[in-house]
Amino acid sequence: MRMKSFAIVAALALSTAIAGCSSIGMQMFTNDYGAVSDAGYQLPRIPIEKVPMKYHRQEVNYDSSERPGTIIVDTQNKFLYFIEGDGRAIRYGIGVGREGFEWHGTAHIALKREWPTWTPPSQMIHRQPELAKFAGGMEPGLKNPLGARAMYLFNKGGDSGYRLHGSPEWNSIGKAMSSGCIRLMNQDIIDLYDRASVGAKVIVL
């Protein structure tokens, strides 16, 4: 009987500890990767169970002197942070530029587009001639490399050529395989797009 009582007390203590952590620790959004109907497009469910949990969207403790609304991209660890303030941030898993295409610096969001057209740069067409058919732009859609949303990054020199964008290739998250842009799962870029404002500061580490 004494052991049973101890087990009950231990269970209650554990549940209290978990509840305490959830109020000051992280909130997971793992259930937010289901099928989505958006602007006439039917985004399929992401098999999120196949994506390492650290790359699932979640609220985390994150100390930063940057103002709320700032975006910080940690290319080494493949995370993007949207600063909320008070030591908190929403963290997203990302895919980054492969070797030779990495970049870092400070920019700002100049434009935001839902279901954008993708136009491959001339340098990319030179490397991949089969993309020449999209020189005039690839129509929006489920196979478009920019996915459901794109945010265009400008710096002091104007258009940096880099984007924060969605991707139909959910299995590229956590990897370095893009041409320099920062890619997120489509359900995540929709969430980030709704949080981020034109003019927001973007820091790429």
Automatic annotation (TrEMBL):
Known pathway: Cell wall biogenesis; peptidoglycan biosynthesis
Superkingdom classification of source: Bacteria
Pfam families registered for this protein in UniProt: YkuD
InterPro entries linked: LD-transpeptidase, LD_TPept_cat_dom, Transpep_catalytic_dom
PROSITE patterns, A to Z: LD_TPASE, PROKAR_LIPOPROTEIN
Keyword line: Acyltransferase, Cell shape, Cell wall biogenesis/degradation, Glycosyltransferase, Hydrolase, Peptidoglycan synthesis, Signal, Transferase
Protein known as: L,D-transpeptidase
Organism: Mesorhizobium newzealandense
